[in-house]
Amino acid sequence: MWNTSMNSNGNRAHILRVLLAAATAFSVAPQLSYADQDPIASFTASETEGFAPLTVDFTSTSSDPDGDNLNLFWSFGDGATASGSEVSHTFEEGGVFTVSLTATDSGGLSDRASTIIVVSERPNRDPVARIATFPAQFFTPDEFTFDGGLSSDPDGDGLAFAWDIIFDGTAIPFDPILSGAQLLVNFSGSDLDCSFIAGPCLTPGTYTIQVIADDGFGGTSTSAATSLTVVGGSEAPVVDDTTAGNEVPQEQALTGSASVVSNGLCGIGILLPMLGLGLTVTAWRIRRRQQ
């Protein structure tokens, strides 16, 4: 019920109060806005120093206050880059590298974190020279291949090989120098027989053999000197008659060619018997008889 006794000023005041109450009842709460916040870049590294080649695993621990997804970009300081929350990188050469991670949110805001990786050149390590096991005794005539292929290098370097065969404390000079991972050696009954053989040939006696491995970077290694004995064949040779194929006494071979029946060619000997006024030269191949 309106109060009719109010003057005009009172009526206006009352109307204003009613309008204010109505406006309050139908008012809409104001919209609040928040500014986008920068992400925080951070990461861990499995290694920060070591010898080349050095492999390091990196893991991002970056975060965003607004909960945005982050785009993660890595730079390793050697020209290589990557993306993702977990990455691995190998530093092939020595140097000081600044590794950085840039984290960017959906609004384009970013942050960067970095660390230093120190990579040193690994000092060269000597190879390890080894010879595969071989018999301690050889009978003439025979041959055997000595193997230095068991040698190794801790740095993975390729190896070059040289061999020493030592008799009476002195290395036997060979020309050319004995080289290669494998070495074929002949064993013969005499120096004369050896003269017909290309490559190293040993007559009866006791020797030591060793291999020298060289990695090409100043690292060398010499295997343990291993002893071997060369023994002359214990059986008298058997000479074949070249016409009838029947065995004949050895002295009957003075006028014809003859070969000793055995299992491996060693060399050629020369027999120079004096027959009357003439000189007959007979050659034969020396082989070990099958046991």
Task: Summarize the entry for a quick read.
The protein is mainly β. The protein is built from 2 helices and 23 strands.
What does this structure look like?
The chain folds into three domains: 78 residues, Immunoglobulin-like, CATH 2.60.40.10; 95 residues, Immunoglobulin-like (Sandwich), CATH 2.60.40; 47 residues, no CATH class. Strands 9, 11, 12, 15, 16 and 17 form a six-stranded mixed β-sheet that branches. It is rod-shaped and about 145 Å long. The longest helix is centred in the N-terminal third of the chain and has 18 residues. It contains two helices and 23 strands. By secondary structure, it is mainly beta. It is 8% helix and 38% strand.
Provide the helix percentage: under 10%
Specify the structural class.
Answer: mainly beta
Q: Into how many domains do the coordinates divide?
A: 3
> Total helix count?
2
Mean pLDDT: 79
Topology:
Blueprint: H1 8-25, E1 43-45, E2 49-51, E3 54-60, E4 71-75, E5 81-83, E6 86-91, E7 95-104, E8 110-120, E9 137-139, E10 142-147, E11 160-167, E12 170-171, E13 182-187, H2 191-194, E14 201-202, E15 205-214, E16 220-222, E17 226-231, E18 239-240, E19 247-248, E20 268-271, E21 274-275, E22 278-279, E23 282-285
Parallel strand pairs: 2-8, 9-17, 13-14
Antiparallel strand pairs: 1-3, 3-6, 4-5, 4-7, 7-8, 10-13, 11-12, 11-15, 15-16, 15-17, 18-19, 20-23, 21-22
List keywords for this structure.
291 residues, mainly beta, Immunoglobulin-like, six-stranded mixed β-sheet, rod-shaped
